[in-house]
Amino acid sequence: MLFRKKGSLNVAIAIGFLLIAFLISASLGFSHGGKHDPEEFTQLMALKKATGLYDQLIDKGKLDQSWENELSEVEVIRREKEGQSEIVVAFHLAEGDPQTVHIFFTARGEYAGSNFTGE
Q1: Between 20 and 30 A from 27 (CA), which of 8, 57, 90, 111?
Q2: Residue 29: in which H helix or E strand, if any?
Q3: In which band, very low, low, confident or very high, does the pLDDT at 37 lie, cut at 50, 70 and 90?
Q4: Distance between CA atoms of 32 and 34, rounded to whole angstroms?
Q5: Neighbour-count burial for 3-37, b at 16+ CB within 10 Å, e otherwise
Q6: Stretch 33-42: mean pLDDT
């Protein structure tokens, strides 16, 4: 036997439980690694959100079907405007007029509007 006294067995069991509790709590503390600050709205998040809004504009007929079939480029830009950071997602057609639709988001990810001018 590893432990000969009855008290030693209780101490060993208590230490084992404490070790298991420590390992579980340590793994829970690191389980959310790799995620961004919940207040940070990334360019990838903006692209995903803007794509959904873009599809809605086409489905509702606010953009012609050519915007679905003739899209040539999508651009995601983080810029400063009037002292505020914003993300602009621009959908470009190869040809046509208007040639670009801009969708705007605040730095926190709120939809701020859309237009053809980028202003």
Answers
A1: 8
A2: helix 6-30
A3: low
A4: 6
A5: eeeeeeeeeeeeeeeeeeeeeeeeeeeeeeeeeee
A6: 66
Q: Which structure tokens are listed for 16? A: 């084992």
Type of residue at 24: I
Global pTM reads 0.66
Q: What is the mean pLDDT of the chain?
A: 80
User: How far apart are alpha carbons 17 and 94 in whole angstroms?
Assistant: 65
| DSSP label of 92 | E
Instruction: Walk across the sheet containing 84-93 and list its strands.
Output: 71-81, 84-93, 100-106, 111-115
Bridge partners of 113?
Answer: 104
57 pLDDT higher than 60? yes
Task: Please answer whether residues 35 and 44 qualify as being in contact, where contact means their C-beta atoms are separated by less than 8 angstroms.
Answer: no
Phi, psi of 55 (to 5 degrees): -60, -40
